[in-house]
Amino acid sequence: METLEIVIGLIAVIALAAVGAVVGFVRPRRRRSLPPRPARRPGTADAEHLPGVGDDAEVPRDSPTRTVEDVTLPEGPVLERPAPVLGRLVRLRGRLARSNSALGQGLLALLSRDTLDEATWEEVEETLLLADVGFEPTTRIVDALRERVKVLGTRDPEHLRGMLREELLSVIGPDLDRSLTVERQGSRPAVVMVVGVNGTGKTTTVGKIARMLVAQDKDVVLGAADTFRAAAADQLATWGDRVGVPTVRSDRDGADPAAVAFDAVKQGIEAEVDVVLIDTAGRLQNKVGLMDELGKVKRVVERHGPVDEVLLVLDATTGQNGLRQAAVFSEVVDVTGIVLTKLDGTAKGGIVVAVQRSLGVPVKLVGLGEGADDLAPFEPEAFVDALLG
């Protein structure tokens, strides 16, 4: 009996333990409490009130915020926009007509006389010679006009003007190739060397050519290889900065011009630009020194590839003296084209004819003023029309 009671007691204990386990399993577990949030420090903002991009930290969120347009950015350099190249000579022809009115009007007045005797033809010849047309072209023009007037027997001013225009055009050479090689040559840029005596406006002309090329959407690098004139590199860099064109230069005066020119072409190749313009020294103390200097520049540059253009800058107001200078340079380097500066400042427009015949290369560009965009491609028809008024 006692044994039975013990067994019943054990069964009761086991049953109670089992019920307790089931109840504990079913009851949901209490969530673990998180540590209390720290109290907000004075002067701080709630996350929902934090300032956004463009806001001032002191401005409450409910105040107007600044937009991207309101944010002031540092100003970059303002680049100039060069004038279009097309039609520049037509636009500037008034300046040429003013300076050369005596030539054109003088010839027309002589040819319109009632009697074209020998004395009149001598005056026509003298007028052309004084305009620096040159002896051979002058003789050709006068002989042609005399024959045409004699055969046609015309005295009409318009007919005479037309004949004079045709003869002037014929000696200027309307069929000469006056284009500039400024297109990329395969994997390298076109290379243009500019030579001339110091004082002709050579460095200024290089800057103006750069502006012309920028106006034609060309990428350009300038090379300041006139290292013997202290202000030349600064002057060239100023021209380049105005239109966003970089200038390769030496950090010391009197550096090797050939090294500067070489580095300019190298940088142009690396930057994949269209044209490298190289300004050179124009000292004429002796031809041997000039020949050595320019010859070295050309040879060193040609390690990268051929020089595509060699432009000779001449001051149109120097007349026959300019022709003698041109002859020296043409012996030193193979000149491919002529740039006549200050053509608006001389009454001797015939220098165009004379210099072309003297050197056997065409006038490609003319300067007709001191303005940044007063350099124009030479157009024979527009030039003659400006001469005749």
UniProtKB/TrEMBL annotation:
Question: Topology in the membrane?
Answer: Peripheral membrane protein
**Which InterPro entries does the record cross-reference, listed alphabetically?**
AAA+_ATPase (IPR003593), P-loop_NTPase (IPR027417), Signal_recog_particl_SRP54_hlx (IPR013822), SR_rcpt_FtsY (IPR004390), SRP/SRP_N (IPR036225), SRP54_GTPase_dom (IPR000897), SRP54_N_sf (IPR042101)
Pfam families registered for this protein in UniProt? SRP54, SRP54_N
Map out region (Disordered) in residue numbers. Answer: 32-69
Enzyme nomenclature, EC number? 3.6.5.4
One Gene Ontology CC term in the entry: plasma membrane
**Which amino acids does the record list as binding GTP?**
196-203, 279-283, 341-344
Q: Which residues form the SRP54-type proteins GTP-binding domain?
A: 362-375
Give GO terms: molecular function aspect only.
GTP binding; GTPase activity; signal recognition particle binding
Q: Where is the signal peptide?
A: none
Could you tell me the Gene Ontology terms of the biological process aspect for this record? SRP-dependent cotranslational protein targeting to membrane
Transmembrane segment boundaries: 6-26
Give, as one word, the top-level EC class: hydrolase
Q: Which family does it belong to?
A: Belongs to the GTP-binding SRP family. FtsY subfamily.
Please give the subunit comment from the record: Part of the signal recognition particle protein translocation system, which is composed of SRP and FtsY.
**Role this protein plays:** Involved in targeting and insertion of nascent membrane proteins into the cytoplasmic membrane. Acts as a receptor for the complex formed by the signal recognition particle (SRP) and the ribosome-nascent chain (RNC).
State the NCBIfam families in the record.
ftsY
Official protein name in the record = Signal recognition particle receptor FtsY
Tell me the organism.
Kineococcus aurantiacus
